[in-house]
Each structure stands twice: as structure tokens, then as C-alpha cells.
Design goal:
Order of helices and strands of chain B: EHEHEEEHHHHHHEEEEEEEEEHHH
Shape of chain A: globular
Number of strands of chain A: 5
Helix content of chain B: 25-40%
Oligomer: heterodimer
Helix content of chain A: 25-40%
Distance between the termini of chain B: 68 Å
Strand order of the largest sheet of chain A: 2-1-5-3-4
Distance between the termini of chain A: 42 Å
Largest sheet of chain B: 5 strands, antiparallel
Number of domains of chain B: 3
CATH superfamily of the largest domain in chain B: CO dehydrogenase flavoprotein, C-terminal domain
């Protein structure tokens, strides 16, 4: 039976009915049309569904929507500034041509955001270790790492 | 078609136990859920009820008592274990093992209890905790009991937890003075991958002889296991290369690996030999390094 829950997503309270077995990724995409969150493997291996929960990177495909009540959820749609400007990490990904097909990118950017929030001055090794759960089949990662390094170096986070 | 279940959210351990007792096999306890949701999705398990203990207060703490015993709450996340300064200082091997599970996004949610109760033979937390002599505190309808982690695992995916029981805490004794411990994981894709073989060794060096030797293996038997013959070979002796080689061979002889998608049984057996030797050598190298540093400080 569906339950009425409240989720706080990108600073906005959303009241909605969910089935207890729905994952957060499913609710974000199918109920709230926040389709920036992608589902790749649906098993926690690819990182495409990464969102931030209370500032920490989480695989939303392995996270029940019921569990997300009372928490602060940030999706890629929530990274824009109030003026609508792209987030510095998004700008850096564009500047460094870090995007090819783009499917994995929301997950990469949110993983990078959590990483830089925790460690504003990472080494390349820190970044590569931090991205270990995100898979990109196009870019070979080099430009993604460069983009994150540059965003960190510019202190733009 | 998705597996449908109802979602129950106990506020206390007692409430969780009564829900588990009432619903028996139809109920499945969930902490972080990173393993469980995969199992449900692939229909390996089809629960009617999910009992989510994630919001029970006080179950996620890491504390040391006066004698140096570490208590890890069931809901402590793998990321908490990985990053805890206290753990890095006193039980560093636990931190390092936790860092070898999945990605940060998995470790932010996955818990120690989940890793152990899922009871994968390849569970990365198990070998280190076995080597450290950890115990599992279990609460159930009949009250509380404590079992050594050696006795906790019953088979692939099975533990000694009876109907209505739940793991609430892992207790890890203080490491013997001067003891070091190392966990080495052999996997193709690092932490994101399951271990082909995992080896944890704890030992100290006392006047050149090895003491307090405990060796534990992962992914090479129906449950994580101790390599007691290898331990006995080393204990009290001078760990020269020949002895370490024999210990590796003994561990290889006593493991019971299977062939699966990740590796053949023969390969695992060979890797147990190699990895056990490497791990032992690394432990004694750390011992010697610590003793050089201690001497330098005098």
C-alpha cells in the first residue's frame, strides 16, 4: 500500500505517495521527473544514480525512498545557483570537454562535489580513488579528473 | 515485476526483535540495504516485510572502554570505520579493510552488521575481525548472548542468528602490545570488486619470535575461516623465509575454495599461499619498523 511521505529535494519539500519497495532513484525519475539522475546497472556498481544525501554521495538505486525521509537530498538539478548559473564543477566539466555521451556525468559531478566538500585540496590520486565507484565508458576518465582538479584549484566549490 | 514488501520501522531494538519474531522468515532485517536491495532485486530473497533498523538511535557508535576494547555498533557505516581517527590509531586494520569495500557511495550507507550478516564468504570485514578475535553481541527474544566471530558464520549467506535475533554490536579486544595486523585483498578491480582471496594476519614479534599469531582467510571456504595450522606453525618460532613459506602452504592446504566466475579453486588455493606469505611478511615488516621507531625515540 502506498504511503504518504515528505522528501526534501534540492531545498524543496515534496509530498508524495510511494510504494515501500520503490528506490529513491525510481521516485526521483518516475514520480518527480528529476531525470538528471540516471540508472545504469541498478546494482550499485556504476555510480550513475549517485545523489547527495545530507551532503554525502549515495547510490540512489540501492536506497529505499522510505529511508530518505527527513534527509536533505541533492540531485544534479539542485546544483545550479539561485541565479540559474551552472555550478563551478559543471562549468569545469564543460571547459575541459569531460563530457561525451553524458549519461554518467551527473553521478560523476555529485561524487566530485561530495569529495571536494570533504577535501577541498585533493591530489590527483585522491580524486581517482574518490571516483572509484563511477564508471564512464566514453572518456577514459582523464578529462573528468582534469576538470575536477581545475575546479578544486580554482577554489570555486 | 518488482518484489513487493511492506516496510516496518522499529524505534528500539526490542521492537525490532518482536517484529522479527512475529513475522519469522517473511521478514528481513535491513540496515544500510546495499547488499539486501540487490538480493531482493535479483529475487534471491523475496521478503514480505522489511524491518529497517536504520533509525534506531545509539546503534552506530564506536567506543573504546578503559581496557582498550572496541565496541562497534551494528549500524556503524563502513565509511565511519574507514575514517575514524581512533580506529586508525588502535585498530588500523579495520579501517583499512573497510576502505576496500565498494565505493565511497556504498561505504556511506553500508554497515558493519550488513557486511557480516550478509555472510558472504568474501565479506571484507570478516578476516580482519577474525584475526583480531572479535565477538558478536546478539540480542533476541530470549535475551542477549555473545558468540566469537569464529562461530558466527554458518555457511554462505547463513549465520547463527536464530529467528528474532539481531546482531547489535561487534566487540574487538585491544591488540596485544606491539602486535600489528594487515589485510590484503586480491581482486581484479580493487575495492569495487569482490575478493578472489582475502587474507588477514595479526602477529607480534617478541625477541625475534612470532607471538599472538592469528591468520584468517576470506572467499576460500563456505565461510570466512581461521587458518589454524598456519598459525600454529608460526607461533613462538623465528619467522624466517622458509617458515613463512610453510605457513603459506599450510593455509593453502586448509582452505576449501570453490570455482566460480571470479576464479578457479586451484587458482584460489595458489593465491592463498602467496597472499598469506605476503601478508605475514608485511606484518613483520611493520613490527620491525615500529620497533626501529621506538628505539629511535629512546
Amino acid at each position: 500500500m502506498k504511503r504518504l511521505i515528505t522528501l526534501r529535494i534540492n531545498g524543496i519539500e515534496e509530498e508524495l505517495y510511494v510504494e515501500p519497495w520503490w528506490s529513491l532513484s525510481q521516485v526521483l525519475r518516475d514520480e518527480l521527473s528529476l531525470i538528471g539522475t540516471k540508472e545504469g546497472c541498478a546494482g550499485g556498481h556504476c555510480g550513475a544514480c549517485t545523489v547527495l544525501i545530507d551532503g554525502k554521495a549515495v547510490m540512489s538505486c540501492l536506497y529505499l525512498a522510505m529511508k530518505a525521509r527527513g534527509k536533505e537530498i541533492t540531485t544534479i538539478e539542485g546544483l545550479r545557483g539561485k541565479d540559474g548559473a551552472l555550478h563551478p564543477l559543471q562549468e569545469a566539466f564543460i571547459d575541459h570537454f569531460a563530457v561525451q555521451c553524458g549519461y554518467c556525468i551527473p553521478g560523476f559531478i555529485l561524487t566530485a562535489k561530495a569529495l571536494l566538500d570533504e577535501n577541498p585540496h585533493p591530489t590527483e590520486e585522491d580524486i581517482r580513488a574518490g571516483l572509484n565507484g563511477n564508471i564512464c565508458r566514453c572518456t577514459g576518465y582523464v578529462k573528468i579528473v582534469e576538470a575536477i582538479m581545475s575546479a578544486a584549484a580554482n577554489g570555486r566549490i | 515485476m518488482a518484489v513487493k514488501f511492506d516496510y516496518l520501522e522499529p524505534r528500539t531494538v526490542q521492537e525490532a526483535i518482536s517484529l522479527l519474531s512475529r513475522h519469522g522468515c517473511a521478514a528481513k532485517l535491513v540496515a544500510g540495504g546495499t547488499d539486501l536491495l540487490n538480493e531482493i532485486r535479483s529475487k534471491k530473497i523475496v521478503p514480505e516485510y522489511i524491518v529497517d533498523i536504520g533509525t534506531i538511535p545509539g546503534l552506530d557508535s564506536l567506543t573504546y572502554n578503559d581496557s582498550g576494547t572496541l565496541s562497534i555498533g551494528a549500524l556503524a557505516t563502513l565509511r565511519t570505520l574507514e575514517t575514524s581517527p581512533q580506529l586508525k590509531a588502535h585498530h588500523a586494520v579495520i579501517s583499512r579493510a573497510a576502505a576496500q569495500i565498494g565505493s565511497i557511495a556504498i561505504r556511506n550507507v553500508g554497515t558493519i552488521a550488513g557486511n557480516l550478516c550478509h555472510a558472504s564468504p568474501a565479506a571484507d570485514m570478516a578476516p580482519s575481525l577474525l584475526a583480531l578475535g572479535a565477538k558478536a553481541k546478539i540480542v533476541g527474544p530470549a535475551g542477549e548472548r555473545t558468540v566469537t566471530l569464529d562461530d558466527f558464520f554458518a555457511g554462505p549467506g547463513r549465520t547463527v542468528l536464530a529467528n528474532g535475533e539481531m546482531l547489535v554490536e561487534i566487540r574487538v579486544p585491544a591488540m596485544p602490545p606491539q602486535a600489528k595486523a594487515v589485510y590484503l585483498k586480491h581482486a581484479i578491480r580493487g575495492s569495487a570488486d569482490l575478493a578472489i582471496v582475502g587474507v588477514a594476519v595479526m602477529a607480534s614479534l617478541n625477541e625475534g619470535c612470532s607471538r599472538n599469531v592469528r591468520i584468517a582467510l576470506g572467499a576460500v571456504a563456505p565461510t570466512p575461516m581461521r587458518a589454524r595450522r598456519a598459525e600454529n606453525l608460526l607461533e613462538g618460532k623465528i619467522p624466517d623465509d622458509a617458515l613463512i613459506e610453510n605457513a603459506g602452504r599450510a593455509a593453502s592446504d586448509e582452505c576449501r575454495p570453490i570455482t566460480d566466475v571470479r576464479a578457479s579453486a586451484d587458482y584460489r588455493r595458489e593465491m592463498v599461499k602467496v597472499l598469506t606469505q605476503w601478508t605475514i611478511k608485511q606484518v613483520f615488516a611493520e613490527n620491525k619498523q615500529a620497533s626501529i621507531e621506538a628505539t629511535a625515540l629512546m
